[in-house]
Design goal:
This protein is an alpha+beta fold and about 750 residues long. The protein is built from 13 helices and 42 strands. It has an eight-stranded mixed sheet, with helices on both faces. A four-stranded antiparallel sheet has the order 1-2-3-4, with no helix packed on it. Strands 5-6-7-8 form a four-stranded antiparallel sheet, covered by helices on one side.
Length: about 750
């Protein structure tokens, strides 16, 4: 009868000595609180801001090489050379002698220069003068007095005054026709047109708003280029949905304040704008069949006229986000036609994966779509609505269109997943022809990239990094993508001397045993691989993006929590964005999933590789907003794995949160899945430790969403912790007090010790 007890005691005695001693102590807290400062300004040669010469072939930059010490560099893009801009020791010596001042060669008294005399000299301003330094002869000469700062200020002010005049012109009532003869305007919610010569004469009523809650607006009137037609949006008002909350401790009075603001939620009646078309000569409306755009989302479409005034275009996003169309309307007949007609059984990510460019000169449309399972670009015939060709193709995604070069029929864009051996989230830069030929990868370093271009776009400066590798900056040929020369490779030796631990990139298969799931592991600076550490996940699973850090930083907030004696991980599970459509679709009507089957499998695989990751005492999890929803969901639906959760300002019930974000992923009309995945209806399933934080003035997520979880937990007789911050807004959990309380909660419940104990 006593044998199981003896075995249990033996296991505890075996495990406990391996647990890292002293975790959660005051010394750990002190290191965590000072980590940002101790790592600040410890990485050098990391930032290049190129300044191009007028010929577009040469550039200069100033780079920090040590604390407050700098070098000036000149690079020749065509020759592929990089060299010091000048002899800084000679320049400093001569400048000091000429001005009778002390000049440090590594801290020269200027930040900008100009390349002159065919690269043989540089000019700069210092000590109230403009100077020239010859790079060959190393001779310094004073050219003239520098322009007083007051003169520069006067120039800026005059530019601001001119901008004010433009604002006044733009604010005039109504919209003037291109030929200057007419003004279309709104009055009492109806649409009128009058002669531009008089505000009272020749006033004609074009369109009636009809119902009391409909209206026309001056902002949404669009004239045809020939001034013969007017297209205007008539908007039906949405419902008034007031969210009220009490500010308990206002700064300017003793008594509480009541705050109320308009806040539409899923299922509410939304404002909807429908285009109407009018003929000025006949003073009549040209009827439009709105069957193809009868139930628009509340975003206001932009009307775009063809240059020949034959038709206009607008984008129709149907409520429910499963239909997205580019609509063409014939200006004479009012005939309506769909040019692009995108439809999905799950959702169309109109907010983050939409791009369109109408090319009137060639009668074409560039359109972004995930129809083949990956986010790509397509070229349409604008007259027929037929796809001429797919511009980009493959098991990778277009992340962003940067430039459409109509003259050369090329598109410059950002992409992820183009190199099979690299992390598929890394951003690379590419170019492709309209017909899909000539796909050129302009960057190739193993990391995520950001670029800047020479004025003529013949060259680019590319900086790339990873969480485990500081930035490298290269000069590349923008035509071929070939490397011209390396400009800088960051020096992180000072950072490493602080005992800073390099984050570990880790990848393993997800729930389907096929798809790679990517994440990062953070360790404390005093990490000892012979000891064990409780594991905490920092979660944000919003479907609008991907959230595991990819670029280098000397400080990640997760590292401060790790410093207390934890291993902290971040993971992008299925249902998040920037992978395939199938990967993303996991979130459709399924935000409660939050990628947990992938996350749990990932953490277990990481712990199998790293025995120092202690999963025996359960796993902690924290997040805010959508991450607050997910972290609470973790201890309700996956309480056998996650045992301690801290959730800040969570949108715990998707019926309680903002309309646009939730309907995009959870769908419309509101179905039973909203209630089924609510943290409120699942609160009775809590088995672990839960700490909820919320600001009483949260205008992003209704704070009542948290309080309804609290109500359900009380009714279910569950123990939990709650922090309501007077005057706090969205994200109050990231305040100094909120972060301290979060750390304490994890130390108590995962380490079993009192925070900051000796």
């Amino acid at each position: 009868m006593h044998r199981p007890i003896r075995i249990t005691c033996f296991l505890l005695l075996t495990i406990l000595p391996a647990i890292a001693s002293g975790q959660g102590t005051k010394a750990d807290y002190d290191r965590a609180n000072s980590l940002r400062e101790s790592t600040r300004n410890t990485v050098f040669r990391r930032k290049v801001e190129p300044n191009w010469a007028a010929d577009g072939k040469r550039l200069w930059y100033r780079v920090e090489v040590a604390p407050r010490e700098f070098e000036f560099v000149i690079a020749d893009a065509e020759a592929g050379t990089r060299e010091a801009a000048f002899d800084s020791v000679d320049l400093a010596k001569q400048l000091g002698e000429a001005t009778k001042k002390t000049v440090d060669a590594e801290r020269l008294p200027f930040q900008r220069l100009t390349i002159v005399d065919d690269e043989n000299a540089v000019e700069f301003a210092a000590f109230s003068g403009v100077w020239k330094f010859d790079r060959d002869s190393k001779e310094l000469s004073r050219l003239r007095d520098a322009e007083p700062a007051s003169k520069i200020g006067e120039k800026k002010e005059s530019r601001g005054q001119r901008g004010g005049n433009r604002d006044n012109r733009a604010s005039q009532k109504g919209r003037k026709s291109p030929d200057g003869k007419w003004v279309a305007f709104e009055k009492d919610h109806d649409l009128y047109v009058r002669s531009a010569d008089s505000e009272d004469a020749d006033v004609m009523k074009l369109g009636s708003a009809g119902a009391d809650d409909d209206w026309y607006s001056d902002r949404h009137i669009s004239w045809s280029p020939d001034s013969k037609k007017v297209a205007a949006l008539r908007t039906r008002q949405g419902q008034q949905h007031d969210v009220s909350f009490v500010e308990s401790s206002p700064k300017n009075q003793l008594q509480p304040k009541l705050h109320t603001h308009q806040y539409l939620k899923p299922g509410d009646r939304i404002p909807q704008s429908i285009p109407h078309l009018f003929d000025i000569e006949s003073k009549k409306e040209i009827p439009l069949d709105n069957e193809m755009f009868a139930n628009p989302w509340m975003s206001v479409p932009r009307i775009e006229w063809a240059p020949d005034s034959s038709r206009f275009f607008f984008t129709y996003n149907q409520r429910g986000h499963q239909v997205l169309r580019v609509i063409s309307v014939d200006a004479d007949s009012g005939d309506v036609k769909a040019i692009a007609d995108e439809q999905s059984k799950t959702f169309i990510d109109y907010a983050y994966k939409q791009f369109q460019r109408i090319l009137h000169s060639s009668n074409e449309l560039i359109w972004m779509s995930e129809r083949d399972g990956w986010n790509h670009l397509y070229l349409y015939n604008l007259a027929t609505g037929e796809v001429k060709n797919q511009i980009t193709k493959g098991e990778w995604v277009v992340r962003k269109v940067e430039r459409v070069d109509i003259e050369n029929r090329q598109i410059w864009f950002q992409a992820s997943g183009i190199y099979e051996a690299q992390d598929p989230y890394y951003i690379h830069h590419c170019r492709v022809n309209f017909d899909g030929s000539g796909l050129t990868f302009l960057t190739d370093g193993d990391g995520t990239h950001s670029v800047s271009w020479s004025p003529d776009r013949k060259f680019l400066v590319d900086t790339y990094s990873r969480v485990d590798q500081p930035p490298t900056t290269e000069l590349r040929n923008a035509e071929t993508g070939e490397l011209t020369c390396e400009l800088e490779r960051a020096d992180w030796s000072r950072l490493l001397k602080t005992q800073w631990k390099i984050p570990e990139r880790f990848v393993t298969k997800g729930r389907d045993d096929t798809t790679d799931i990517y994440g990062v592991i953070f360790r404390p600076t005093n990490f000892d691989k012979t000891k064990t550490y409780p594991v905490i996940e920092k979660i944000y699973a919003g479907p609008h993006g991907s959230f595991v850090p990819k670029s280098f930083s000397e400080y990640f907030s997760a590292q401060a929590i790790a410093e207390l004696g934890f291993i902290v991980v971040q993971i992008d599970g299925m249902g998040t964005s920037n992978r395939s459509k199938a990967f993303h679709d996991v979130c459709a009507k399924n935000l409660g999933d939050s990628g947990f089957p992938d996350r749990i499998k990932w953490i277990k695989a990481a712990a199998k590789k790293h025995p120092f990751m202690d999963l025996i005492r359960g796993v902690g999890i924290y997040g805010g907003s959508a991450g607050g929803q997910s972290s609470t969901r973790a201890v309700l639906a996956f309480g056998d794995f996650y045992t301690v959760a801290v959730s800040d300002c969570g949108c715990h019930d998707n019926r309680m949160d903002k309309v646009w974000w939730n309907e995009l992923w959870m769908g419309w009309p509101i179905g039973p899945h909203y209630e089924e995945q609510s943290n409120v209806t699942n609160a009775h399933r809590l088995t672990g430790k839960l700490f909820l934080t919320v600001g009483e003035l949260d205008r992003n997520v209704d704070p009542a969403s948290t309080m309804q979880v609290v109500d359900a937990l009380i009714k279910a007789d569950k123990d939990f912790d709650l922090l309501v911050v007077p005057g706090g807004g969205h994200g109050i959990g990231e305040s100094a007090y909120g972060k301290r309380r979060r750390r304490d909660f994890f130390v108590r419940h995962l380490m079993g010790v009192e925070p900051r104990s000796p």
